[in-house]
Amino acid sequence: ANAVLSSYGTTIFTVMSTLAQKHGAINLGQGFPEGLEPPAVLRAAAEAAEAGPHQYPPMMGIPALRQAIAAHDRHFYGLDVDPETEVMVTSGATEALADCLFGLIEPGDEVVLIEPLYDSYLPIVRRAGGIPRLVRVAPPDWTLPRQALAEAFSERTKLVLLNSPMNPSAKVFDDDDLAFLAELVLRHDAYAVCDEVYEHLVFDGRRHRPLITLPGMRDRCLRIGSAGKTFSVTSWKVGYVVAAPALLAPVAKAHQFLTFTTPTCLQHAVAVGLGQEPAVLDHLAVDMAARRDRLAEGLRDIGFPVLHSAGTYFLTADIRGVGFDGTDEDFCRHITEAAGVTAVPFSAFYQDQRTAPRHYARFCFAKLDRALDEAVTRLRRHV
Ligand code: PMP
Ligand code: GLN
């Protein structure tokens, strides 16, 4: 009866980072930034750790952080959020996602997801008893296939999970896409879980527009953010959910049994970060776009066609451009072993790898210039 101890696989990020370490490779696989941690935020964490307290904070998050999140959403999105009843702090966006899915999905509910998708979505949707309905966006533009999306909704749809800016495609959905989706959510009396962890990583003068700001969406969307992304501190695992009280309540029920709380000193530091001049957050995208351009240019120069990255800290390269004759997995293993550079095979972000595109690799460009340059030099020598 116990032939299979667990049906969870191993996440691609662990697989590739372990391989990178084994070969001493520059790790452009797992997405984490280098050299961008804001000193004021780090200092605030150290001070708060020194000062304490170090026992369980309030389950919904410390008041200072909930107020800072509400102020952030007012400033950037014009949202009027009640910090008392509409904000919940979580241990990373990963926990926020799990809270939303475990809190809202009842066995048999259908969940609409857009593929390629971030790797934690499907295992949690399934464990929550949800039935995934996948809609694919296709390269090079990752255009939302409206008819397929409309057909994925039914009277059994509980929610749609939207990730914009989108990992791994680096797509940023535009206002028309959002309006189309909002209309479907309303028509089917459904909800939307909005993974917006890359909200401050939208490039080329565009701005992030949360689905929750569209007409009719205020009571139907749960907006998820991540301090790990916003302040380039991915180990901290401080995330949050903003939603109307009636939507947040069942999600908080899941939170109480998953982590219950998040380290107090880190919550204080994130509150300080969000309390800075908003221009500081705008600067992140400018800085990151320069890194994007640097790596994209280097890869193109070697012969890789590179897809446009409108947001996130990822770009996608076409491995056929250098005449590589094998799958994306072969390629990522090969460049790790032979060149000392690691990327993530794009097909890992699909439910069924057999029908996924097998000729793309995802590179993280959120690194120091010298790491990006060295990666390009190494790849030039070995592909
Ligand atoms: N969603 C997406 C799309 C991500 O790329 C990530 C990865 N960082 C997360 C959620 C998880 O964020 P956190 O580290 O705050 O748990
Ligand atoms: N979000 C990061 C990525 O897409 C990694 C997160 C993780 O390691 N689980 O690479």
Automatic annotation (TrEMBL):
Where is each Aminotransferase class I/classII large domain found?
26-378
Q: Which UniProt keywords apply?
A: Aminotransferase, Pyridoxal phosphate, Transferase
Any GO CC annotation of this UniProt entry: cytoplasm
Q: Name one GO molecular function term.
A: kynurenine-oxoglutarate transaminase activity
Which Pfam families does the UniProt entry name for this protein?
Answer: Aminotran_1_2
**SUPFAM superfamilies reported for this sequence:** PLP-dependent transferases
Q: Which cofactor does it need?
A: pyridoxal 5'-phosphate
Q: What superkingdom heads the lineage?
A: Bacteria
Q: Which family does it belong to?
A: Belongs to the class-I pyridoxal-phosphate-dependent aminotransferase family.
PANTHER family in UniProt: FI04487P (PTHR43807:SF20)
Per its UniProt record, what NCBIfam families does this chain match? PRK08912.1 (NF006488)
The entry's protein name is Aspartate/methionine/tyrosine aminotransferase
This protein's species is Roseospira visakhapatnamensis
